[in-house]
Amino acid sequence: MIGTLIDIGWALVFAMAGAAIGAILLIRISARIPAVFDKITPNIDEGKEIVRGNRAVADYFGRIVSAAILGVSLIIAAAVLGAMLAALR
Question: Which domain range does residue 81 map to?
């Protein structure tokens, strides 16, 4: 019984550590995604186009950035889940 509680405690520690590291990575990567997108489309200044009211650029830019953030979040969630499962074994 004590061993099970210790394993659950370690799983919680790994989950919290993984979540903290994941949150930091997500914030850092999310801040870099628009810069990467600007390098992919060098002839278009998305910021100016969005300010001018170009809805197509705003929609496309928003979808690309949100898809990238969701993808990174899924990868981080899988890593946290893997750490929890490893701690429970």
Answer: 2-88
